[in-house]
Amino acid sequence: MFGEIARFLLNTIFTLFGAALLLRAWMQVVRMPPYNPVSNAVMQATNWLVLPLRKILPAAKTIDWASIVAAFLAAVVFVILLVLVAGVDPAGLVPMLPTLLLVAVITVIKWALNLIIWMTILMALLSWLNPQSPAMPLLYQLTAPFLEPLRRVLPRMGGIDLSPILLFVIVQVLLMVVTRLAVTMTMFGV
Fold this sequence. Notes:
mainly alpha, 6 helices, membrane, transmembrane, CCB3/YggT, transmembrane helix, Integral membrane protein YggT
């Protein structure tokens, strides 16, 4: 029972933190204004890790490498803690290191895909419940790079935008593939 609780807490904490790091990188790609309350909250939550890394890894045009590397480092710590909670001897981590690093990369990909899903769901809900919400321009700006190509392919049906549903389905399929890949790698010790 302790193991399940520990895994749940680790998963919750690291997923939220990893999502914040990826959101920080994503906000730079879409050129989100820094004075936005959401931007400020994300920056404050992640500055302690990103700013020291930024001295080593400066941003290149629109890519915030420090935030991406920070998300990877958070995923490495997360995966190692999960393995330790599972009862693996710490001395046994060294031979598992290549697998753990690959699983950490897959974990970052899962965090990014989940972030896309949650942003899309939140945007769709707010567009139905409160389209005049101050969060709508922010959510629209964050989801536009994913939804605009789908909107060009998928016609509007009676004024209803189905592109968020299609994006949700595509990302869910990608999550299934990534999850299967992670399970396969850990089961067979790739």
